[in-house]
Design goal:
Length: 378
């Protein structure tokens, strides 16, 4: 009789186990210290069964680590970053951060809305760059995490108050990072305002797929037949130029180092690539915008977005002063590259560019995804 009861219990246990669905993604949370002004910062690690791991801190919504499988069966951390919170607070390179309110430059830090002129913080010569001196990369976001439909989800919220860094309107922003079970990192941005404002949110991870000293051997394809030439201050001139026959033609995959040293006034102004490419199929919603691959690591990253453009920045201002994480070295010239999905720079001052205005009652809503696969090298 006793034996029968034991058998029944084991059987019941097996049945209930088989009903528990297998977990494909995981979330861990820990403290990442406090900021200089005593705000608590947490660190979340989203991971999946394939080994991909995304580490994000609530300060700046910064992706500090992004581990993806490489061709030799290990994992590569494919983003630049620091070890400590204070380095992120001091840093001015926007490593891994969320950027807002306006990613990229606004000429002279000024723009007009309905006839009223607004003056923003000038933090890049006389221009405004990436939201100012205390943009969305330098604030602590509220966070909550959950597992939804096989995705590890981190929701970040921030209220940007009326006139913060010079922008009108109380802006409620939500950014949702989600790691899927098949090695995709999704980023969704939403915002609403109580007064008309301008907005251009993006993500500023610096990628280096192999960990080599620079990214010049990485191959890049951009689904972009044209780009925006810039003036000496890196403000678009207003012209939308064809890439055909220029160093800016990435319509077929090519090594970043192939043309970067070509004689070209645009490359001179950017010290390399630091331009906005106008993406094809602009009204088609989420579509492939860029493919980055590195042969030694065997890693390929594909970027999907619903945004009209992508800023490809080849790390030209990295000058050997940023400490490298988990190392005694420094990040040198072109040790990482950014692929920032976004609207055109300086749109608030260029009526021919797609509008970046957001009015009360409207919902700003955009999506970008980074998908990692292993290259078939043989
Ligand atoms: C810009 C660069 C700028 C860099 C700062 C990039 O998004 O295109 O011009 O220097 O951000 O990290």
């Amino acid at each position: 009789m006793k034996r029968l009861i034991v058998l029944l219990l084991v059987f019941a246990g097996l049945c209930s186990c088989s009903q528990v669905t297998k977990k494909n993604v995981f979330i861990e949370k820990e403290s990442f210290g406090t900021t200089a002004d005593e705000k608590k910062v947490d660190r979340y690690t989203l991971s999946n069964l394939l080994g991909m791991k995304v580490v994000i801190i609530t300060y700046g919504g910064i992706i500090t680590h992004l581990y993806v499988p490489n061709a030799t069966g290990g994992l590569n951390d494919v983003v630049l970053g620091y070890d400590s919170l204070s380095d992120y607070e001091k840093g001015s390179s926007y490593f891994g951060a969320l950027i807002g309110r306006y990613g990229n430059r606004i000429a002279n830090g000024k723009f007009k809305l309905d006839g009223v002129e607004y003056t923003l913080v000038q933090n890049n010569g006389k221009n405004h760059l990436h939201g100012g001196t205390k943009g969305f990369d330098k604030v602590v976001w509220d966070a909550s995490s959950s597992i939804e439909n096989d995705k590890a989800v981190l929701k970040l919220n921030y209220l940007s108050k009326d006139m913060e860094e010079g922008y009108p309107g109380n802006l409620k922003v939500e950014v949702v990072y989600a790691l899927t079970k098949d090695n995709k990192l999704e980023v969704e941005y939403k915002a609403t305002t109580d007064k008309k404002t301008v907005l251009n949110l993006t993500q500023h991870a610096y990628f280096n797929l192999s960990g080599a000293k620079d990214i010049l051997n990485h191959e890049l394809m951009l689904n972009a037949p044209s780009y925006l030439p810039v003036d000496e201050n890196l403000i678009p001139t207003g012209e939308i130029a064809s890439v055909a026959g220029t160093a800016f033609d990435f319509t077929s995959s090519k090594a970043i180092g192939r043309d970067v040293l070509k004689e070209d006034i645009q490359l001179e102004r950017g010290l390399g690539y630091d331009h906005c490419w106008v993406l094809d199929d602009s009204n088609k919603g989420l579509r492939s915008a860029a493919i980055l691959k590195e042969i030694n690591s065997g890693i390929q990253m594909e970027v999907f977005t619903d945004q009209p453009a992508i800023q490809f920045y080849s790390g030209n201002f990295l000058d050997g002063t940023n400490p490298m994480k988990q190392s005694d070295s420094l990040y040198n010239y072109r040790s990482g590259l950014c692929l920032e999905t976004q609207h055109f720079p300086n749109s608030p001052n260029e009526s021919s560019f797609p509008s970046t205005e957001l009015s009360p009652g409207e919902v700003y809503s955009t999506k970008t995804q980074f998908k990692f696969i292993l290259l078939n090298r043989f």
